């Protein structure tokens, strides 16, 4: 659950707890000492005299200097404990209050993911930390943000691509459309409908429009009369796939979504290695030869059978000398070049299933800032694909069949197969390339490059004495030892004081402080129980009086109703025919019919009893009848309420059952959303749908929920029969 400024509540609580801890204060004190020592060594009087780059450099050096110390270790442990505590408390709170469907482990991962994303959005330069996800597919939300951070166009010789695209749409939208827009439209439709690995995107109008808009603008920005290459249509697919959950399926996407896709795609196209671009230039050909050479060496080292199979299927030219080892390697490189050129041009799009492809691209993205990593990664992936398909290649008779086998069997490879091969043979090398410390060689401070002269106070103050590094280390160790000695003295003095106080209490007979507190708490608890008992007795007496008063009023009303019915039975009121016809049935039920003249002759009238309370003489027979009807209907309503909602212990049991059904209904709705649509609806998401879409989704969910209800009912009946 997001909190202030997009940060989760557990993360804000952790920050507050850490900033108020003694370990944090000790760390700041030691960091200040380390920075001050650097200022002394550099003959700088004030930290504020430094430029921003110099301040950052001093901070990095100071942090590195105290990184292995006791204070740093204590702070690290404190941060770990507080993060774990606050994250666990937030997870437990949601489990108790919101009744989620996911497990506690799922909630912990979701909360941790939200915290990491909020920190990455605040400090994008921390994207280098994503290198720890090496050989792991990124979660959906992390993947979206990571690709966006690594593909943000920050080159000085380019305008901001996103801003340029939006400005062009607002000023002249026709310039953002290629002259071959119709051809791009047809190719996108054909590609989405025919390519087997794009099955999840098939039928989505939003994905189609996003794909066409990005490619059309990309071709228009090239300002060329040549048509767009087919491989460019393939390369845009991973980007629209990652953005697909944010794109509506039945209508075009928003301009903001398209602008983000334009920026990512154009930046990616510009950052591709030359052997991926493969435009036919001499530079790109040279890069392709180097890439093929690297793939061939990897195959010979880790998949020795695959090079022999490939060399057999590609017939060498007559001027090749195959007898020598160099000649065999040349034949292998020629065959590899023909085999993997379309594979590497498309960056494996169409050759791998979509989840495996996104895993490969995740590893490519997190290494964009590491020189040489991406070439190595693409060579490793290519070698793994060819090595895993060596048994299939043996079934081929010609090079054409081998190329078709690569296209047809590649989508069957899984992420686990790639992870196994990378972990087995290539992980240490890739990890070292990603985590290489580019800042190990610290630059030399040049005061002339600062905006303001950083040492403008040096002339009116004494120059601090210069100290050697080992002297600074000795002084720091002495300070830590002195702080530890003082702390131990304080702890010993406090322990001695407590022992003396306890011995004095025992000698004087005064109960200990803990005993006094316990006695006070026990007395307070007894007083609370007495007050609660008196309050409950008062409530019981009030309820008894109210019940007796209600019974008395009910008896009086019954006697009054009996009297009114007796009077109505003796005299027949004069009322219109229509009124008698409407209420004839009710009058026959409530009171006996009025006597006829014949009945007066044969049946003597009943004796008239003098009631204790006579009705108001001014009340007409019609009013008496209406009053009796109102009382009768009220009693019927009360009886129906008692039947429907029960009374006493039965009512409590019925309420618990009803509450259980309500919770079960909530769980069924959430589970149906996950079963049918793959996720839970966000707040307000269902309201933003069209009425037809709401009706369709509601009918589907109700059908599934009704099925679950019938299954539970059948299960309960079966258990009851047992």
Would you kindly provide a written description of the structure presented here, covering whatever features stand out?
It is a single chain. This protein is an all-alpha fold and 722 residues long. Among the domains are: 4-122, no CATH class; 161-271; 277-434, Cyclin A, domain 1; 554-593 and 612-643, no CATH class. The chain contains 29 helices and no strands. The longest helix has 58 residues, at 513-570. 20% of the residues are buried.
Would you spell out the secondary-structure blueprint of this structure?
Layout: H1 9-19, H2 22-41, H3 52-65, H4 70-97, H5 104-122, H6 140-150, H7 161-171, H8 181-194, H9 205-222, H10 230-235, H11 237-243, H12 255-271, H13 274-277, H14 282-302, H15 305-313, H16 325-345, H17 354-365, H18 373-388, H19 390-394, H20 399-409, H21 415-434, H22 469-508, H23 513-570, H24 577-582, H25 584-590, H26 597-602, H27 621-645, H28 648-677, H29 691-721
Helix pairs in contact: 1-4, 2-3, 2-4, 4-5, 7-12, 8-9, 9-12, 14-16, 14-18, 15-16, 17-18, 18-21, 23-27, 28-29
In short:
Among the domains are: 4-122, no CATH class; 161-271; 277-434, Cyclin A, domain 1 (Orthogonal Bundle); 554-593 and 612-643, no CATH class. It is built from 29 helices and no strands.
């Amino acid at each position: 659950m997001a909190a202030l400024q997009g940060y989760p509540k557990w993360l804000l609580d952790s920050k507050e707890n850490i900033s108020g801890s003694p370990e944090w204060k000790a760390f700041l004190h030691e960091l200040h000492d380390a920075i001050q020592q650097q200022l002394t060594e550099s003959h700088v009087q004030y930290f504020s005299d430094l430029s921003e780059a110099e301040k950052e450099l001093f901070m990095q050096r100071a942090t590195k200097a105290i990184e292995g110390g006791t204070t740093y270790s204590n702070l690290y442990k404190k941060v770990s404990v507080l993060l774990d505590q606050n994250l666990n408390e937030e997870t437990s709170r949601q489990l108790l209050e919101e009744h989620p469907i996911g497990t506690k482990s799922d909630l912990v991962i979701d909360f941790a993911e939200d915290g990491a994303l909020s920190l990455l959005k605040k400090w994008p330069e921390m994207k280098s930390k994503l290198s720890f996800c090496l050989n792991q597919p990124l979660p959906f939300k992390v993947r979206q943000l990571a690709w966006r951070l690594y593909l943000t166009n920050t080159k000085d010789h380019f305008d901001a691509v996103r801003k340029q695209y939006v400005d062009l749409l607002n000023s002249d939208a026709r310039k953002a459309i290629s002259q071959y827009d119709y051809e791009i439209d047809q190719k996108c439709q054909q590609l989405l409908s025919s390519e087997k690995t794009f099955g999840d995107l098939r039928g989505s109008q939003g994905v189609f429009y996003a794909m066409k808009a990005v490619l059309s603008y990309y071709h228009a920005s090239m300002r060329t009369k040549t048509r767009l290459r087919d491989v460019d249509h393939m390369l845009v697919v991973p980007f629209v796939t990652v953005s697909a959950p944010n794109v509506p399926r039945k209508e075009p996407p928003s301009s903001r979504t398209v602008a983000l896709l334009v920026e990512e795609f154009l930046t990616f196209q510009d950052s591709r290695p030359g052997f991926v671009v493969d435009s036919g230039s001499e530079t790109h050909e040279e890069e392709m030869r180097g890439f093929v050479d690297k793939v061939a060496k990897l195959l010979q080292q880790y998949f020795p059978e695959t090079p022999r199979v490939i060399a057999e299927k590609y017939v060498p030219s007559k001027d090749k000398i195959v007898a020598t080892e160099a000649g065999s390697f040349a034949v292998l490189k020629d065959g590899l070049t023909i085999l993997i050129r379309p594979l590497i041009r498309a960056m494996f799009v169409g050759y791998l299933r979509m989840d495996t492809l996104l895993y490969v691209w995740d590893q490519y993205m997190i290494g964009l800032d590491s020189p040489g990593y991406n070439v190595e990664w693409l060579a490793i992936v290519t070698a793994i694909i060819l090595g895993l398909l060596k048994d299939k290649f043996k079934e081929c008779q010609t090079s054409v069949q081998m190329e078709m086998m690569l296209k047809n069997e590649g989508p069957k490879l899984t992420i686990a197969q790639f992870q196994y091969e990378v972990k087995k043979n290539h992980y240490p090398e890739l990890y070292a390339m990603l985590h290489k410390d580019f800042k190990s060689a610290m630059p030399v401070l040049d005061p002339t490059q600062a905006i303001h002269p950083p040492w403008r106070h040096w002339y009116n103050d004494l120059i601090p004495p210069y100290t050697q590094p080992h002297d600074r280390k000795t002084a720091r160790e002495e300070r830590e030892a002195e702080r530890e000695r003082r702390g131990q003295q304080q702890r010993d003095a406090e322990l001695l004081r407590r022992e003396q106080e306890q011995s004095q209490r025992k000698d004087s007979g005064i109960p200990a402080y803990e005993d006094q507190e316990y006695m006070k708490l026990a007395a307070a608890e007894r007083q609370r129980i007495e007050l609660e008992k008196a309050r409950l007795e008062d409530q019981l007496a009030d309820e008894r009086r109210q019940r007796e008063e209600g019974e008395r009023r009910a008896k009086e009303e019954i006697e009054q109703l009996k009297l009114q019915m007796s009077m109505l039975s003796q005299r027949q009121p004069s009322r219109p025919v229509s009124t008698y016809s409407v209420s004839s049935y009710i009058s026959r039920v409530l009171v006996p019919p009025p006597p006829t003249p014949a009945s007066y002759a044969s049946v003597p009238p009943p004796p008239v009893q003098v009631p204790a309370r006579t009705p108001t003489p001014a009340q007409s027979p019609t009013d008496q009848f209406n009053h009796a009807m109102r009382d009768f209907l009220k009693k019927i309503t009360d009886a129906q309420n008692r039947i429907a909602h029960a009374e006493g212990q039965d009512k409590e049991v019925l309420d618990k059952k009803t509450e259980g059904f309500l919770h079960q209904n909530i769980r069924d709705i959430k589970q149906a959303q996950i079963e049918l649509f793959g996720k839970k609806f966000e707040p307000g998401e269902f309201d933003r749908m069209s009425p037809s879409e709401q009706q369709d989704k509601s009918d589907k969910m109700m059908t599934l929920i009704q099925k679950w209800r019938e299954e539970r009912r059948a299960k309960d009946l079966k258990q009851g029969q047992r």
